[in-house]
């Protein structure tokens, strides 16, 4: 009977509008939830089949939830470096467990990027889900795989301890006075045979100079250079110069201070690391060609590859001309390159006072973790208070062919569904994936004005559906009362 179908249609209207009200309520309740995507109830007509001449039979209405998961929320600035937002498409990959993940453990996807450090140093959001990323190898590289979730690891900042960086490069900006008077030791060295006090890098050197006893040869000019070893320990080397009787040439020695910091092979004494001649052009610049022509007599025959090498402390007794760090230091091998021809100055010989303008070195002493930074491509970088930075991981973003069809789960997260399609893991900013914004959070996509308007219309529709039921009930009562 048509009146019965009207009753059922009214009931379906109540059910459908109840579902719509639930969706609106969920939206309003999550208006301040980070990364929340609004849901709406969409109605579709239900038609009953009817035979010819039997009259119209109402089918009613059915409500279906539609999720606007692909809709981007506005990014808002925060004060935490570990708050993350995505500008564009993509989802963070998260898990419920931080450690000992198995292939069978569920990986979920979320836009809720309010991450903070837990007691073990893992990045976890407010729903208790742990952030996943590709680990960084010792060379600072990652190996992204678009389809293998098992290559991801939980991003852990707590495992990063203090660090140090050994010195590998020294840039010198210094001048040697061209009119420097000749020392007696330099004059004696030019005699044939050499005089009794002649400078000799092996038997009477600048490294032997002792101002208390006047032993050895006093340098015409000396500068000291700080070095950081592999443990961040501070070492010092001195570069000493003595003007030669040959115009535009200087004797030079590099030595360790104190000499006990190194063990040297034959030909090197009193902490010497290297000795030889330094040549200059007539206009005061370092003469690269003359240095090459001096060959083994030069401090560095190839100025472009002026490298001083230290063997490790455990390398054993060094050979002739070889330098090793002292065994008691227990430090690693180290190569230090001298930049003597820098565009800003370098090593020069002008007729002005011998002076050091600058000694620039890399390398740092031991430093503790002071800050975590995350860039727009997802690299998580540890910053230490000694200026050293170290990449820890790269955050992966997952994209889907149909993100609106992802299956919702608790914690403002999603699971893969048949309708969403297969995930594709990407580096942020590539292949259609959005960029990551640090110290930013994605706000909810709920518009309160639209939700309250929907609340009013849903309430009216619910009331109207209830009127259908009361009207049909009255008609049935009239029908029953025909026979009395």
Topology:
Layout: H1 2-29, E1 39-45, E2 61-67, E3 75-77, E4 84-87, E5 91-95, E6 107-110, E7 116-117, E8 123-124, E9 130-135, E10 153-154, E11 163-165, E12 169-175, H2 184-190, E13 221-228, E14 234-243, E15 249-257, E16 262-264, E17 272-279, H3 288-294, E18 307-310, E19 323-325, E20 334-339, E21 347-348, E22 355-361, E23 364-367, E24 369-374, E25 379-384, E26 389-399, E27 407-409, E28 413-415, E29 424-427, E30 435-438, E31 440-442, H4 448-480
Parallel strand pairs: 12-20, 12-21
Antiparallel strand pairs: 1-2, 3-31, 4-30, 5-6, 5-9, 5-26, 6-28, 7-8, 9-10, 9-26, 11-23, 12-22, 13-14, 14-15, 15-17, 16-19, 18-20, 24-25, 25-26, 26-29, 27-28
Helix pairs in contact: 1-4
């Amino acid at each position: 009977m048509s009146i019965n179908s009207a009753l059922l249609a009214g009931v379906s209207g109540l059910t459908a509008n109840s579902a719509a009200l639930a969706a609106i309520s969920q939206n309003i309740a999550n208006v301040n939830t980070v990364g929340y995507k609004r849901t709406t109830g969409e109605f579709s007509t239900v038609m009953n089949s009817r035979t010819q001449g039997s009259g119209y039979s109402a089918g009613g209405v059915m409500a279906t939830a539609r999720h606007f998961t692909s809709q981007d929320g506005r990014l808002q600035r925060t004060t935490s470096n570990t708050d993350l937002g995505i500008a564009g498409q993509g989802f963070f990959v998260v898990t419920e467990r931080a450690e000992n993940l198995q292939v069978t453990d569920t990986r979920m996807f979320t836009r809720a990027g309010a991450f903070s450090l837990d007691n073990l140093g893992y990045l976890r959001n407010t729903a208790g889900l742990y952030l996943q990323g590709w680990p960084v190898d010792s060379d600072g590289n990652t190996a992204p795989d678009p389809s293998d979730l098992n290559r991801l690891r939980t991003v852990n900042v707590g495992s990063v301890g203090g660090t140090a960086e050994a010195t590998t490069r020294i840039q010198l900006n210094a001048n040697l006075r061209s009119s420097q008077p000749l020392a007696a030791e330099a004059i004696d060295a030019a005699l044939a045979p050499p005089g009794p006090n002649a400078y000799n890098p092996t038997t009477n050197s600048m490294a032997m100079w002792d101002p208390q006893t006047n032993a050895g040869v006093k340098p015409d000019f000396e500068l000291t250079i700080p070095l950081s070893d592999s443990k961040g320990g501070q070492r010092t080397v001195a570069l000493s110069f003595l003007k030669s009787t040959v115009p535009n040439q200087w004797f030079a020695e590099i030595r360790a201070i104190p000499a006990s910091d190194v063990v040297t092979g034959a030909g090197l004494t009193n902490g010497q690391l290297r000795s030889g001649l330094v040549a200059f052009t007539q206009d005061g610049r370092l003469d690269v060609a003359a240095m090459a022509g001096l060959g083994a007599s030069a401090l560095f025959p190839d100025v472009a590859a002026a490298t001083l090498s230290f063997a490790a402390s455990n390398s054993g007794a060094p050979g002739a001309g070889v330098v090793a760090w002292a065994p008691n230091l227990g430090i690693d091998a180290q190569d230090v390159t001298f930049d003597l021809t820098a565009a800003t100055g370098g090593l020069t010989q002008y007729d002005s006072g011998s002076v050091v303008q600058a000694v620039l070195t890399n390398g740092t002493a031991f430093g503790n973790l002071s800050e975590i930074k995350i860039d727009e491509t997802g690299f998580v970088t540890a910053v230490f208070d000694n200026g050293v930075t170290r990449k820890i991981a790269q955050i992966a973003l997952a994209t889907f062919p149909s993100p609106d069809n992802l299956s919702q789960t608790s914690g403002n997260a999603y699971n893969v569904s048949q309708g969403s399609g297969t995930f594709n893991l990407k580096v942020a900013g590539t292949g259609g994936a959005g960029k990551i914004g640090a110290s930013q959070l994605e706000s909810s996509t709920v518009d309160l004005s639209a939700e309250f308007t929907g609340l009013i219309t849903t309430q009216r529709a619910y009331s109207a559906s209830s009127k259908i039921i009361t009207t049909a009930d009255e008609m049935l009562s009239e029908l029953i009362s025909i026979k009395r």
